[in-house]
Here is the input.
Amino acid sequence: MNRFMKREPQAEPNASPEVRKQVIRYLLDEMGDAERALLDDRLISTPEFSDTIASIEDDLITQYVRGDLEPRQVARFNEVYLTSPAKLVRVEKVRALRRAVGEISAERKLHAVRSLQIGTSIAAVAAVVVAAALWPLWRRSPSNHLMEPGKISYASFSLEPGITRSGEGAQITLPPGVDEAHFELVLPNAVALQTYQAILGTPERPAAWTGVAAPRDAHLVAVVPVKILSAGDYTLELQRSGEEVMTFYFRVAK
Amino acid sequence: MASDENSYAFPDNMPEEELNSPALSQKELLAILDSDPGRAEEKYRELYQKLIRYFEWSRQTDPEDLAQETLKRGFDRLQEGQKITVGEPAGYFFGIARNLLRERGHFRKMEELDDHQQLSRGQPLFLGLDTSEQLIFLKECLRKLPRDDFNLLSAYLEGEAEAWGKKAGVSPGTVRMRIHRIRKRLEVLMNFRADARNS
Here is the structure.
């Protein structure tokens, strides 16, 4: 395990796949003390290596936010990153950055359309056509439904407690092209508005996705990548300190 | 308190002993990082951020305090006449940082002790802003990026950086390098704007 010591500092962030794997193990706290000490040695002898680690960490967080991490890594990531306030801030920062980039992209696309002088009347007609196309989806949705134009589009759904899977349950329809589902969770008065661990499960996969549900403008919101949501029944469980606080039920129809 | 990368305010976070020291001035101390005062200041900021991140990777609950303590110890020793023997001054500070961790012992379990207390305070924030304020702030910073950099960042965040590179005729290594630089530039823009807001 002398690789960290022997290798010359690389032009970060272009670490070899082997180094990337080791750094990910370091970040996910999967190294033994001896191997970790070697990596610390490398930081002392070649401090630029911290840029490499930072860059790999940025990639790791970005993959997580996109929902692209391997399931095994997701579990480990949740354990290390979602229990640390400082790391949670980094995760939220990437999430916010992604949203901001998506909104600017959308604005610029709109601006490009205008600069091509397509004309407001055509845009108005297009808007009517889009609205007409989305109207059936809107009507079928059990809750308020919001489409965000641009690269990161999302749909918002309100989930209320007390609706059981065996009953009518909340049924949601995901419009095509949507990247994220934002679940606004209605909490009973007795449940505090604070950050919880959120675990999305199906009968077959009890922890198909895990993340956080965080307060946003007086609501509790869990942001779930749509690629995880195939048609079927789901539970969204909120946990604190590993204990269930409450569970929401819904069905995805596609 | 959750880590806020922009909470430092150079040079106020330099240890007071150094600021008031009769032996070496602050400028002289910073000269170990770079002979140019402007670049030395920039490197000091970078070093502080790197140390914070190092302590985060070691799962410490108070990475900012530890980064401050590391810098203080390092500059104290320089005041006492100690010489830096490693090639890069940052390595000297990383050595001190590692010793700080050793002093604490059993460091990797420490973070978990008050996680839940910390998380129970509510929504994770950066820059102490709520969600909508974060979005406005980030968009202000993003608009300062050159269009091409913005497009690459956008592709990266959507997992399409490789495709972007192929289309632009740029190797994956160069794409990664550019993304790294863009993110650094964005950090600088964010720090600058955060400083401007705080002043």
